[in-house]
Structures are given as C-alpha cells and as structure tokens.
Amino acid sequence: MExxxxxxxxFGDGIPKVCVPLVKTTAAEIIEEARQIEAEAHRLEAMYxxxxxxxxxxxxxxxxxxxxxxxxxxxxxxLKLRKIFADRLILFTYRSExxxxxxxxxxxxxxxxxxxxxxxxxxxxxxxxxxxxxxxxHVVRLTTEAHExxxxxxxxxxxxxDTPRDDKIISMLRNMEILGADICKVVSxxxxxxxxxxITELCTKVTRGNLHENxxxxxxxxxxxxxxxxxxxxxxxETGSAFTFASADTGLESAxxxxxxxxxxxxxxxxx
Length: 272
Prior knowledge:
Blueprint: E1 4-6, E2 9-11, E3 17-22, H1 27-48, E4 55-61, H2 71-84, E5 89-93, H3 106-109, H4 112-122, E6 127-131, H5 136-148, E7 152-159, H6 166-178, E8 183-188, H7 193-207, E9 220-224, H8 230-234, H9 236-239, E10 243-247, E11 259-260, H10 261-269
Parallel strand pairs: 3-4, 3-10, 4-5, 5-6, 6-7, 7-8, 8-9, 10-11
Antiparallel strand pairs: 1-2
C-alpha cells in the first residue's frame, strides 16, 4: 500500500491519524469551537507527550455552516480556521443528506460545484472529501482540479442503514482509487457484532494487500458506526485504517459512536 504525504503528515504508514470535526453552525460558534478544540488537543498532547497521540487533522463540516453558500463568508471563515490550526491539516467536507449530512441549505445544495470551486481556489485547505455517489464525472472533475492545486482527496461512502457485502465494499474502494482518491473511505452501520468484525477483518485484509488480485494501493479508512462499532475507531494499528475521528469535549459528534478525543487517547495509550 502506498503512503500519502500531505504536508508532512503520512497516511498509510500503519499509524492511524486523528481527525476532529467542527460541527457548529454560525461563524462565531465555529471559531469558538475551533479554539476549544485547539486548546483541548494541545492539553492532551502535552499530557501524553507521544508522537502518535496528537490531532493531525480538523474536519470542517461545511454542511453545518450557515454561511456556506456565501463565497466571502466561507473564505473568511476558512482563513480564520487556517490561522487557528496552523500546524494541523484541514479537511473540507460538505456531507449530503443521503450520507448523514446536516441538510439545512437548499441554496447550497444547488451550488455545491461552486462551493468546492471556491474552497479549492482558496488554497486554505489541505484535503477535500468527495462522496463517491455524487457520480463519476463529478468525482473525477474535483479530484483532478484539487490535485492541480496541491490538495489531497478523500473519496468516501457512508451507509447509515446497513453494512454492504465485502465484494461491494471492495468494488467501491477500487472505483474510488480509479477516480483519483488519495485516501479511500467507507463508513457503514452494523446490524450486529458480526458486521463490525467483518469490517475490521476486511480492512486488515485490504491494507495488508491480501486480496490476491487487484489490491487497493491507496490508504484506506473503514469505520463501523454506533456503539457496536467503536472498536473499529480505535483499532487502526491492527487494521491499518489510515485515520479515525474523535469528537471534542463539547458533547457534539459528527457520526454515531465517536469517542471523545480524551477517551481515544486513553485507549491508545494503553498499547503504546
């Protein structure tokens, strides 16, 4: 499996990176949330003092942001976030309603191409998330343009109702890679513990190149949601999953089953 270097942060090297989402709605709330996350990350990193226990990436969940359809407001907010998270990567995500997004922006839904264009042209983010189900043409156009501007691409699929069959997941991962993904991400909802075990075992097989033919070359993220799936969020060293998500100590999470950053660090510290 290839390693992907995004401004010095290596994905796919066997060390799962930590991403914390921003999920407030107004610019002022998001800036306050960002400062709280930075302070919490700094506190925990100093306390544990281990290179693997740090926040590498911040996900700006733009589907929550009230001003996302306004170019000037969006760029102003991104500029402020860039200053707060000067030594962390910023991942830009606009999650659709079908994949668990916070759909409150009818105008924004019709302007999604413009929004991504503004973000890519701004040069203020390090990665963008693109949903596989938005269509091959859309994905290829965005990955191509992002790469031309030095921005890495996470191509993703989220299923909040089911865990797809293994062969369907592998097919999605291959398609993501073909369409220009730097990191391939599949998130699903388990019906039982078997689904969780299936996801963790499949992730291990994929990242170790044990598919025997047509192995996936790019770093992979595979997460099983909900309380049942929490093990998939902390087992990246065993499964090879490239990064995981943890929520800040604000009581808010961007998907079911996220551990707090402090709880995640506590769990990982046990095995270091």
